[in-house]
Amino acid sequence: MNLTRKRKKEIKRLKGEASALWAAQQELLEHANGVAREAGRQVGNYGREQVVPGVVNTYEQRVQPVFDRGASIGRDLADATKRSIDHTVVPALGSAVGTVLSIGDIARDHRVRNALARVNPKSKVKFVAAPEKKKRSVGGVLAIGAGVLAAAGVVYALWQTFRADDELWVSEDEPLLPNA
């Protein structure tokens, strides 16, 4: 590319002005960061010295007494309800569920089916061979659980790795203006 001497001088002057502008911007950003740090420190001090004591005082004088009165009434009501449920509802539900489950187990038992078939040969109930036991043991169940937990851990690690968080990546070095 053939440039005239005049154009070369203009380009050189523009490069110098751009470098000066870049340096001025960097200096301004450093000063702005210092002011922002000092403002944050002052806001923290004001919050610790003025806001927090006022909030704590208001809570202790106005909210906590009302909460304590309501909590004691609610606690007594909750205790009475818990005792009632523990002594009447839970035993009744437990026995009903146990009865239904035991009837289901008895109806599926091959020995009961075979006995019914012998008592009434005309019934639709046929002799049933004893079902084979399932091969899943406690170790197999634990292995499946460990696999599910490992998969959840991998998914969580991937999510943490690829989530968009602008504050995670802060450049320590300021980009320099390339000298072409």
Query: Between the first and last Cα atoms, what is the distance in angstroms?
Result: 14 Å
User: What is the number of beta strands?
Assistant: 0
Q: Using only CA atoms, what is the Rg?
A: 39 Å
The sequence of SSEs as H and E is: HHH
| Overall shape | elongated
Q: State the helicity in percent bands.
A: over 70%
Number of helices: 3
Q: Proportion of β residues? A: under 5%
Mean pLDDT score: 78
Largest sheet: none
Q: Supply the helix-strand structural class.
A: mainly alpha
What does this structure look like?
- It contains 3 helices and no strands.
- The protein is mainly alpha-helical and 180 residues long.
- The chain has a domain at 7-129.
- It is elongated.
Strand and helix map with partners:
Layout: H1 5-108, H2 110-119, H3 138-162
Q: What would the keywords be for this entry?
A:
mainly alpha, elongated, 180 residues, 3 helices
Summarize the structure.
It is built from three helices and no strands.
